[in-house]
Amino acid sequence: MQTVPESYFLVLAIFTAVTAVAVLIQAGVLLGMFLFMRKSMTKMQTLADEMKEKALPAIVSARILIEDLTPKLKIAAANLTEVSHTVRTESKHVSETVDVLLSKTNAQLNRVDGMLSATLDAVDHATRVVETAVNVPVRRVSGILNGVRAGVGVLVGKRGHSAHSSMNGAEHSAEESADFAADSAATSSDPMRAERVAEQKRSAG
What we know:
Shape: rod-shaped
Helix content: over 70%
Oligomer: single chain
Structural class: mainly alpha
Strand content: under 5%
């Protein structure tokens, strides 16, 4: 039977000691990690609690505010839609009213224009009728006087100088009467001509 050398037990003891030391070191590292993780979890839990205490009221307030504003926003949107519809309807009505007023105004202007044109035409026609009605008798009287003058001249052609002078005076008076009648007829239709005739008479006088 062989005996185990003492060096073998020594190596075995050293190996066992080294292994035990490694295990203890590993256990210490794991313990340190556990303690660190536990401390970190405690801090995170505390931070989470603080965040929950501070943020939860704000979240609740925001939720209450949103719940309170939602119906008001819906009502405001409905009112805005109704107002927009009303504005479009009223603007359309105003546009139609303005178009009707413009059409009526144009019709009245056309009517007034037609009435003025008809009135001016009637006045022009009446003026021409009056001028014709005045000038024709004057021309007839002038023709009659010329005929009488010619007849009288033939009848008394052999009389003396005094009778001839009297006839010339009568003829001159007849011409003046005819001229006066013609001037009266012309001046009655033309005021400017009346003024010119009056100036000529004053100049002649």
